[in-house]
Design brief:
This protein is an alpha/beta fold. Helices cover 28% and strands 23% of the residues.
């Protein structure tokens, strides 16, 4: 938690530097008690201690009749007033009909559809935790998350019903209800499924239990700095504070919704992912924007978004940016409605950023942001108003109420480093998670006793307080912006009847950024070829986790005396 003492020190530091916290942006205090602790260039604020549902709906009367969300494919839509009514109905149904208790978990297993936000806000208002599941997960991956999160209800769409049902059926002595969103009217709903259309029109009243802002609202899954996916406990306060941070005058990217002004924002990044969930859905929804949900992204639907919906703020990841640059059907004039493009999930190369400026003739602003699921997620954000706020290649400035420091890698004392020195980035602020669900060991390894969270990323900062992410200390592999945990793939590889040991690393990939590459050692008297092993893994994971980098069979996996895999040695074999 960001203490009052540090808040006051931040202000004193700014005054000593002759810095007006709002207007003067050329000078920065980079230390607290000479510890090389970096403070924000923007003014801190008092965190709103309300619940997330209260924050989202606080300005409903200003845009209740405007379109809140529309499907890019079917064009079915809901106004803000309709989303409010339907989410309340679903909340009452979950409490009154299904008798769910406060803090119990509901899963959303769905692509980006308009009903996603109705479901999300319904569960949060009812005092329930929402865990979001990747819609391309396999039965085994879904099963693991349902068990770990102790989910009671799953919301899904027509095409995914059978996958959800199979995952639930494989869990012994577990009763989980399934609610189906009929996103395809011509497809009949399966018998026995609860119909979303009916429960969202469920009229009744219910007195919800008292909630506090320290209750967990969302439970997305992340591999963190290492290991298999873990539930990240994000409280109402975590999420509200992060929304306040990115909605400040220095970082807000959309225009104020009023009169005939309402920015259109495509929701291309998946809403199960923290960027799509918080930075786009919660952020833009709470400001009255028009969200265009994209169930499945491709060139055709992207062209429709540009030509028909004319977006104003556009959130992307590097693969989408590269498509915008290289696809001959996407012309500069089709991008003229966009005034702001934001790239997240992974850094975009300087050369590609320059190409973007050339294609858009410098008329579209481009920014990068940085964060992690465990920080709700935003830590760094480039600013559209601060001087030097858009340095090419930078990941941004610290958002308000956040401290950061760069520490020496492999130093048990975490010695703080100064300007332009590469080290691990540690941060502290109200957006830092409560902890990992049912995993105190992982929590302790990630958040120290003083509240600093390890990002697992190598970075440095310059004289203006701009941060640059240069590498990853953690072993995670970033494929198309998504995290792939080597430990998860290694566990699957070792379950192959012919595999004795395995290790997975990330290798550069021109299209995906990185790709997983496996090294395996076979059991004595067992035979298997690389393609068999790759197919074995492909049948158990989502496509982006496929061993696209290939499989190499070794006599043994190189390890230290303590048994730690020597991944650097494996990289030399590539």
């Amino acid at each position: 938690m960001y203490s009052k003492r540090l808040f006051v020190k931040n202000k004193i530091c700014q005054l000593k530097a002759g810095l007006n916290p709002v207007k003067n942006v050329r000078r920065l205090c980079l230390s607290i008690e000479n510890e090389n602790v970096i403070v924000p260039r923007v003014p801190n604020f008092q965190v709103n201690e309300c619940l997330l549902s209260e924050y989202v709906w606080k300005n409903l009367d200003r845009w209740e009749n405007k379109t809140a969300v529309v499907c890019a494919e079917t064009e079915r839509s809901y106004t803000y007033s309709q989303v409010r009514d339907k989410s309340k109905n679903v909340a009452v149904f979950l409490k009154k009909a299904l008798k769910l208790k406060k803090t119990e978990t509901v899963a959303i297993f769905s692509p980006n559809v308009p009903e996603y936000c109705i479901t999300l806000f319904a569960c949060i208002e009812a005092g329930l935790k929402v865990t979001t599941i990747n819609p391309i997960y396999t039965k085994d991956e879904i099963k693991r998350q349902l068990i770990n999160s102790n989910t009671k209800v799953v919301f899904t769409v027509t095409d995914l019903y059978s996958t959800a049902r199979d995952a639930i059926s494989s869990i012994p002595q577990k009763e989980i209800s399934i609610v189906v969103i009929q996103d395809k009217p011509h497809v009949s709903l399966p018998s026995g499924a609860i119909k979303f259309d009916e429960i969202s029109s469920y009229f009744g009243s219910f007195t919800f239990e008292q909630q506090t802002n320290t209750d967990v609202a969302c439970l997305p899954y992340s591999s963190g700095t290492t290991g298999t996916p873990k539930g990240v406990e994000l409280t109402h306060r975590n999420l509200v504070s992060n929304l306040q941070q990115i909605q400040s005058d220095e970082f807000r990217l959309n225009r104020v919704t009023e009169g005939n002004i309402q920015d259109v924002v495509p929701v291309i990044l998946p809403m199960y992912h923290i960027y799509g969930l918080t930075v786009i859905l919660m952020n833009m929804f709470s400001q009255g924007c028009k969200l265009v949900t994209v169930p499945k992204f491709g060139t055709d639907i992207f062209l429709k978004i540009l030509d028909h919906f004319k977006p104003n703020v556009f959130y992307a990841v590097p693969p989408i940016m590269l498509m915008m640059l290289n696809n001959k059907y996407i012309r500069a004039e089709q991008l003229k409605s966009i005034h702001q493009v934001v790239c997240s999930a992974a850094p975009l190369g300087v050369a590609d950023i320059e190409k973007f400026f050339v294609k858009t003739q410098g008329k579209v602003k481009f920014m990068q942001i940085y964060g992690m699921t465990e920080c709700s997620p935003i830590i760094l954000h480039q600013s559209p108003v601060l001087d030097k706020g858009r340095k090419v290649g930078a990941s941004g400035l610290l958002v308000a109420n956040t401290l950061a420091k760069i520490v020496q890698v492999d130093d048990p004392n975490d010695t703080n480093l100064g300007q332009f020195e590469n080290g691990e980035l540690l941060v502290k602020g109200p957006q830092v998670m409560k902890g990992y669900h049912n995993n105190p060991e992982a929590t302790k390894a990630t958040i120290n006793d003083n509240g600093w969270i390890r990002t697992g990323d190598i970075a440095y900062y310059d004289e203006d307080g701009q941060f640059y992410i240069t590498d990853r200390l953690k072993e995670l592999i970033k494929v198309k912006g998504f995290q792939v945990a080597p430990a998860e793939l290694e566990e699957i590889l070792r379950s192959h009847p012919a595999v004795a040991d395995a290790a997975v690393i990330g290798i550069p990939h021109q299209q995906y950024g990185e790709a997983p590459k496996a090294f395996v050692a076979l059991k004595k008297d067992h035979k298997a070829n690389a393609e068999d092993i790759r197919s074995f893994v492909a049948g158990k994971v989502a496509p982006y986790k496929d061993l696209t980098g290939g499989v190499i069979i070794l006599e043994k996996i190189p390890k230290t005396a303590s048994g730690k895999t020597l991944r650097r040695d494996l990289k030399q074999l590539c």
